[in-house]
Structures are given as C-alpha cells and as structure tokens.
Design goal:
The structure is a homodimer.
Chain A: H1 6-13, H2 17-24, H3 32-45, H4 51-56, E1 63-69, H5 74-89, E2 93-99, H6 102-109, E3 120-124, H7 129-134, E4 143-146, E5 154-158, H8 160-173, E6 177-184, H9 195-209, E7 216-221, H10 224-240, E8 247-251, H11 254-266, E9 275-278, H12 286-289, E10 293-295, H13 298-313, E11 322-325, E12 328-330
Parallel strand pairs in A: 1-2, 1-3, 3-4, 4-5, 5-11, 6-7, 6-8, 8-9
Antiparallel strand pairs in A: 10-12
Helix pairs in contact in A: 1-2, 1-3, 5-13, 8-9, 10-11
Chain A binds a DNA duplex (16 and 16 nucleotides) through helix 1, helix 2 and helix 4.
Chain lengths: ~325, ~325
DNA sequence: TTGTATGCGTTATCAG
DNA sequence: CTGATAACGCATACAA
C-alpha cells in the first residue's frame, strides 16, 4: 500500500488538490464546510505531506537544521529540549548535526547536504557565520545563533560576562586565597567559543571591583581526565603554600568543580570551610552534591532562539536581534 | 544568484539533462569524452544535486537517518564516527535524531518526519523494529540495528555476553570476595536495551564455571550521581563485613568503575590490592587512570553497520545478517 | 551513446 | 472561494 498523496486526499474529499493544499497551509479563506471535508479526508487516509516535495515546490520543508558541538554534555540535551518544544509548536521538525570535527563541518557546508537545505539554521555555541561568509556560501536560510553572540544575525545567548561577575562578586566575599580554573577551547580556529573567556573577564572585573585578586589560575580541557588532573595540580599547589587554606576556587564549569570536590574529599579537606568551590552550569547532580554554582536557563534560551528563527521564517525582516539570558547564583554547601 | 540546477549543467556542457543525470549516478556507459565535459561543467558551476528533488523523483535522497539515545556518552561519539566514515565513502549523508524521550520518538515515527523519509535507517542500542511493527508502519526503508540484536533485521552488535564472560573469568582468578554493579535501563518499555542484561548473564556464567559467586550485586542508573551513590553504598557494605577486603568489583560500565575508584581512593584503599575493579567500555580516561576494563571496537561496529545497510541499499535481498564484535579485556593497575 | 518526455508530490498562479 | 495547471529539480523509460 502506497502512502497517500495530496491527490488521494483531494479525490477522497471530492475537491481539487489546490484546496487541499490551502487547508494544509492555512491559506486564504476556505469555506469552513469544505475545510472540514478535507480535514476528514486527511484523517481518514492518515495523510501527511511529503517534506521533500514541499521543498521542491518552492515551499518550505518544515525542517530546521541544528548544528552543535558533540553532545557529550547535559547542556546540549537541555538546549535541544528548548528548541524542540518551540519548533514543535510551530510544526517544524529538527535535524541535528553534531559537529564532530572540521571535516564534518566541511561536508555540512557542501550545499547538497540536508543541513544546508533546511528552512532555517540554528548554530549552537559556535559562530559559523564567518565561515559561511568566507566560502561565499550565502546562507539563503535564516540563521540564529544560540549560546553565542554576533552582530550580524539573531542570537539568543547566555550572558557569561554577568555569570563570571556574579561568581567573582560572591567569591570576593569569601575568606582565604582565590583560585580559578578555566576551560581550554581553542581546538581550532573555527571551533572557538568565547563563553569561558567571558566568564573570566566578568570574574576578574568583579574581583578588581572588590579589591581582590586571584592567587593563580589554571586551565583544563573539557573532559573528565583533564578535570581530575587539574584539580590535583591545584590542590597540590595550594597545599604547598604556607597558609594555602582556606581557599576559594571558581571552576568555570561544573565538570571541573566536581573533580575538585572529589579531590578535596580525598585529601580530607572540608568543603565550604577549608576549600570553597563555585561551579558553573548547575548540572543535574549539583544540587545533590551541594555544589554552589551558576544556574543557566538553558531551555529558555533554546526556546527563545527558536522564536527568533520562527519570526524570520514568518517573514520578519528587521535588524539582527539579540536575546540575553542571565545565569543566577545558587549557593549551596560547597562554599 | 540562484544555485545551479541540472539544467544549467546540461546547457553549460552542451548535453541533455539525461546525460548529466547519468554521470551523476554512474549509470550505463557514457562516452568518456562527454563524461569529462559534464564533470567539468559540474565543477565549473559548482553544482550539487538537490537531495529533495532526487527523493521526489523516485530516486534516493542519499541521506541516512540515525536514531540513537541521548548522546551524553563517548560511546555514541565513536559510533557516529564509524558510521560517518563508511557512509561518507558511499557519498551518503547522515541525519542524527537523538531519542530524548518517548514523545520525540512518537514524532519521529510520524511518517512526515525526515527521520522516516531517509533512504535507510540506523537504530542504535534500542530495537525499535517492534514499535514500527505495532504501528503498522512498515518501514519501507532498509534498517540496520547497531549495538542491539534482533532476528528480523540486519544488525551489527557487540557480544556483551562474551564481554561479561571475559570479565567473569578474569574476576574469578582474583582473590577476595566478588561484587558486581549493573546499570538500570528500564526507563520505558520502548527504551530497553539488553546490553547490561547480557553482560550480567555472561559474568554469572563464567563465575559459576569457575565455582565462584558474587557476594552481592548493585544497580545504578547511568549517571554520575547514581554512580557515586552506588559506589559509596557498596564500599560501605564491604567495610561493614568482617573480612570484606580484599574484594573485586565488576562494574558493568566505566562510569560506575570510575566512581568506585574515586570512592576507594577517598577511603584510602589501595586499588589492585584492597579493591580490584574491572570496568567496561575503555573510555578515553581509562588508560590514564589505570582501569582494567573491556575494550569495545565501537568504530568497527559502526562501520560494519553502515556496510550492511549499504548493501541493502545496493539491492541486496537476503535473510537478515548479524555481524558480531567481541570486546577484549585490557588489564591495568586497578586489578 | 544520448536527447526528450513524463512523472514524483506540492505549492503557486490564474482563471472561473 | 475553488479547480485546473504550470512550475520545482531530478531520474528514468523511451525514442533516436
């Protein structure tokens, strides 16, 4: 049994294909009665329009491509949820393209790829608009950046500067020497995010404001092992000082903070006393482990990104818009 | 400037569209000379065929859908790599659909979704063929299961039974009492994987074979927090026993093993002496932390899955085939 | 070996 | 308001 086409529906409803198409797209007034008939036929035949044909016909395919870094973190799961919810309401489908490495990106940029054939593009964390430009790949589709910021397209972003500031301001109120751990992200010129850079700027600004400064800073790449090693190195260094403890550490990602908590525990240090730790992300486990951290409204950010894109798809033509979201500090036992 | 179509190429090359299409699809003999001309025209115009049009024309879209669980683990990154490599060689594109929850699955199953419109389907870890059947959604596309096993479709899977057996056989040679930690996966009837069940079966069989048995078993869901809590509970229990140490623990996933290593360290237990730990996965950090574990040829498994699907796409009609891969034990310091 | 015509499922245009 | 019919970009039988 073949899948029903718009022809079948038209026949079943005793109308022309044009009419069916019109009810499908909520077009110009269709007589309520005939609309009902068509809707019933659609239901009867369990018909769903073919997105490829839609796209071919010059219409829309009702699919959005999402380009994002490898999804090994909770952040992107939450982000996808926010995006999904918004797009689903608007009856759009999502196709996800994890940017594993540069060669994958190259392929996505080849215009034959589905990624490039969707009605709209969501780029998460990375700002690839530059690349598109260089390749003279004028993006015909509207694009929105999420978790990243640029002047020349819509974006929905977290204010990591404020996040860093909040962390710094809070850290400044705590006793003992100050340390910070940052995330290394310069894998490749293309794959660069300013997220951690901004957290750092904000953090330092707040510290300066309070007349304090960090004793030392550390950098780790974003993986379990690096987090552990850095935690070890940091606490080794602190322990080697005359009066290293108490100290306060701002770890710019919960992954790093978690490793620090582990390491502190191994050394018999009391959290919130010998060592105070501030994370960033508010991962699902943060509450249970009592980690003081910055919570980000990730879903909301994704949802908003979707709205921005949907308005463009709806025909909105205006200057690029930027929706800013603020993280907020959640104080728990670790500090 | 519009993107070039097959018409433009034909015109530019001074041939008919049919000829262009033929060279595009490596069809029946095209005179080498004209083939060259066409190829040059294609290059000149930077032409790439429109996948939607291809699909509509009754042909193929050269895209494969991959349905997989949320990508928060290294396993799926590696799997995707294997799949990508194989499909790329065959000039197929991949669209990834993370199965966040049941409602998402429902939507993917709605036939209008792109997921369902691809030339082929790869289902990772979960066997969704049952669901397809129940819905009477006869999958028109060829489907391959990876990291899962079923009788009625091609699959490329890891022999987790053997993995468990290897772990059990090795554990049986170690001194002290035996413990095991399993992963809870029964989130939903749909989302069920037999992976851990099989590891368990193999493990017990090997133990029995060696005339040994586990003192106690534990179950944790697959997340950092649960892993920690279980590790704590397990070591608490062991410590409460008269002669609990030395002991050996088979953690059926490296995530769990890592948590155990942490916890053991906190308690001042010596790994490979007081506590011996065997993991499963060989995560990137396992070597550095000296974790004895089962290594899986994940990329190879993905690559093979792709080959199976490609052969079906190439017209192969035969009974379902199953490609089996074996994990192997890597002994390190933790045991 | 190659060009032409037809069809794929929709949307959009245009008469009615 | 609605029904034909022409695109859309491509593959493919069919004819040459």
């Amino acid at each position: 049994m073949k899948t029903p086409t718009i022809q079948d529906v038209a026949q079943h409803a005793g109308v022309g294909v044009g009419t069916v198409s019109r009810v499908l797209n909520n077009h110009t007034a269709v007589k309520p009665a005939t609309r009902e008939t068509v809707l019933k036929a659609i239901a009867d035949l369990n018909y769903t329009p073919n997105p490829h044909a839609r796209r071919i016909a010059g219409g829309k395919s009702y699919t959005i491509s999402v380009l994002l870094p490898v999804l090994t973190t909770e952040f992107y799961a939450r982000l996808l949820n926010g995006l999904e919810n918004a797009f689903q309401e608007a009856r759009y489908d999502l196709a996800i393209f994890p940017l594993l490495d540069r060669s994958r990106l190259e392929r996505y940029l080849a215009s034959h790829t589905l990624a490039y054939q969707a009605d709209g593009l969501v780029m998460a964390t990375y700002n690839l608009t530059k690349v598109f430009h260089e390749r003279r790949l004028q993006t015909r589709q509207p694009t929105v950046l999420v978790d990243a910021y640029t002047d020349d397209s819509d974006c929905s972003y977290m204010d990591n500067l404020t996040g860093g500031t909040l962390a710094g301001a809070y850290a400044a109120t705590l006793p003992g020497t100050l340390y910070a751990v940052w995330v290394e992200t310069e894998l490749d010129q293309l794959f660069t995010t300013r997220v951690f850079e901004e957290r750092r700027t904000g953090f330092h600004a707040a510290l300066e404001q309070a007349g304090r400064r960090v004793e030392a800073e550390y950098t780790a790449s974003f993986d379990t092992l690096a987090a552990r090693n850095t935690a070890t190195a940091l606490l080794d260094d602190v322990a080697a000082k005359a009066n290293g403890f108490p100290c306060t550490v701002f770890a710019s990602a919960d992954l790093l903070a978690g490793a620090l908590m582990d390491e502190a525990r191994v050394r018999g240090l009391t959290l919130g006393q010998d060592v105070r730790i501030i994370g960033f992300d508010d991962q699902p486990w943060a509450a249970a482990r009592g980690l003081t951290t910055l919570h980000q409204p990730v879903e909301a950010m994704g949802y908003e990104a979707a709205q921005l894109l949907l308005s463009r798809l709806g025909g909105y033509r205006g200057p690029p818009r930027a929706s800013r979201f603020e993280p907020h500090l959640i104080v728990r036992d670790s500090s």
